[in-house]
Write a structure and sequence with these properties.
Elements (H helix, E strand, L loop, with lengths): L8 H9 L3 H17 L9 H18 L8 H20 L6 H13 L3 H11 L2 H12 L4 H8 L3 H18 L8
Helix pairs in contact: 1-2, 1-3, 2-3, 2-4, 3-4, 7-9
């Protein structure tokens, strides 16, 4: 099957379903573009596996009829990629091994003999949703899956709030990421 115009994503999906290498390469380029946009460089070694997961999800979605509008293909692929990456991160990391939290804690201990007072104050100043996510993951030790379920939010939202919360904490506490 030949692919017609670059905008004809229905034809690309049809070609993908029959194993057309050009279609696989084309969709893989879109997926890796999203992985780069999401700054998933720590998982660069896993991009092929992530791409395969997303390709399978796209084919299943097409077979179910979820991809009826060709103009929505790119946004749909971005959402599927983001969700697959978030799931991958959740499977690969535990809250205790989070490098971001470890950096923050180390820097707090270096700068202040009693960092818990500053941390408690800074946590209290976070927007409520960010505070609830950060506390549940890092202070209460819940898994990403448990926090998402408990707070009723998708993994992507959870991860975004976690990242924003840690960034806000660093800013409020005068800590630059990666400084020693």
């Amino acid at each position: 099957m030949t692919i017609r115009a670059p905008e004809d994503w229905v034809a690309v999906l049809a070609a993908l379903e029959v194993g057309d290498r050009a279609a696989v390469a084309r969709v893989t380029n879109v997926i890796t573009g999203f992985l780069a946009r999401y700054r998933a460089y720590d998982y660069r070694d896993s991009w092929d596996d992530l791409c395969q997961e997303v390709l399978i999800s796209l084919i299943r979605s097409a077979r179910r009829g979820a991809l009826r509008e060709p103009s929505a293909f790119i946004a749909y692929t971005g959402a599927i990629t983001r969700n697959a990456l978030t799931d991958w991160i959740q499977r690969e990391r535990t809250p205790e091994s989070s490098a971001a939290w470890g950096e923050l804690r180390t820097e707090l201990e270096r700068r202040n003999p009693d960092p818990l007072l500053d941390l408690k104050r800074a946590l209290g100043e976070l927007p409520e949703r960010q505070r609830r996510v950060v506390e549940a993951i890092y202070l209460q030790g819940y898994s990403y899956e448990a926090v998402a379920k408990r707070l009723g939010m998708p993994f992507g939202t959870l991860k975004r709030l976690q990242t924003e919360g840690l960034k806000t904490l660093r800013k409020k506490m005068g800590i630059e990421r990666g400084s020693s």
